[in-house]
Design brief:
Length: 310
């Protein structure tokens, strides 16, 4: 690795324990999850206490800090290895179930105070939001309870930033990169069109129990896709079921044009960055990342980008 990664473990008493370079590492960060995930294997240091936190950083950039979910110590004739599985603090919102409840005319602050505020994550940029009613079902996580309200009231799924702030839109405002043609070098560049993801029509069940209305996708019709779904609006969309159906169509369309870029080395890229892709096949401008994976193994060090067309 030309960009050496620095690893630090923390014991239950807070003692910092420098860790050696890994033999395997995978760190994933995705737009649709509040928790980053880290999996690594490294030589087991002598007298290492049980670890409860781990930090991974490149020079000048902290990639990950979070709680250890699982620790394995393996001894074999080839030596002793330590494997760690960890997630960032946003995992608290996934691991804890939300109190089942029905709200009448709730505001965003009502739902936030109930499900998110106890964990210390602030929100920013939402404004004043309200729904006529909202139901949180048994088994939903704290994160799902908050996301459901945001989707119904605002039509977007919130995002937990690396700084620990919940915002109402996918990350933006980062740097713009060119991959290929004098920009970032790539090991492999894949363009994908997934017609099977696209929906052309959503049939909506009304209060009387009949599927008496529907929303269609002009974009799906343009590429010749015919694929319908029958949809029962959840509680957060009862006041405006068409908005919910529109969102389902848009989410499906956003999965149509995708790309994957495998870049050499561990690069300090962000979900807020944007990418233009240029290679011998052609040029594709305006991609945003939905997931970044930093990977290291015997095969080398790589940064893998999963991209969608803006």
């Amino acid at each position: 690795m030309s960009n050496l990664i620095q690893l630090t473990g923390y014991s239950q008493t807070g003692t910092a324990c420098p860790l050696p370079q890994p033999v395997f590492l995978q760190l994933s960060r995705a737009v649709d999850s509040p928790a980053d995930g880290l999996e690594l294997t490294l030589p087991l240091p002598q007298d290492l206490p049980p670890l409860c936190k781990v930090k991974a950083q490149l020079p000048g950039d902290i990639l990950f800090i979070g709680e250890v979910d699982e620790e394995e110590r393996v001894s074999s004739p080839k030596g002793e290895l330590l494997s760690l599985f960890a997630r960032s603090d946003g995992a608290l919102l996934l691991d804890n179930q939300a109190l089942p409840q029905r709200f009448d005319s709730p505001r965003l602050q009502d739902v936030y105070q109930r499900y998110i505020a106890p964990y210390g994550f602030p929100i920013a940029g939402f404004g004043e939001l309200r729904l006529p009613s909202y139901r949180v079902s048994k088994g939903a996580s704290e994160w799902e309870a908050f996301c459901g309200f945001c989707e119904g009231a605002l039509g977007v799924r919130p995002y937990l930033t690396p700084q620990g702030v919940i915002e109402p839109q996918r990350p933006s405002g980062g740097r713009r990169y060119t991959i290929g043609e004098g920009g970032l070098a790539y090991q492999k560049l894949t363009f994908r069109r997934e017609r099977s993801r696209v929906l052309s029509k959503i049939c909506i069940r009304g209060e009387e129990g009949y599927y008496s209305s529907a929303v269609s996708s002009e974009k799906a019709q343009e590429i010749g896709v015919r694929r319908k779904r029958y949809w029962i609006p959840p509680d957060e969309y009862q006041h405006n079921p068409q908005a919910g159906a529109d969102r389902l169509l848009m989410d499906a369309w956003n999965r149509y044009r995708q790309a994957e870029a495998l870049l050499p080395d561990l690069l300090p890229l962000s979900l807020a960055d944007r990418f233009d892709l240029i290679d011998s096949i052609g040029s594709e401008m305006g991609y945003y990342p939905v997931e970044i994976r930093w990977e290291f193994s015997a095969s080398g060090a790589f940064t893998r980008l999963y991209l969608r067309k803006e």
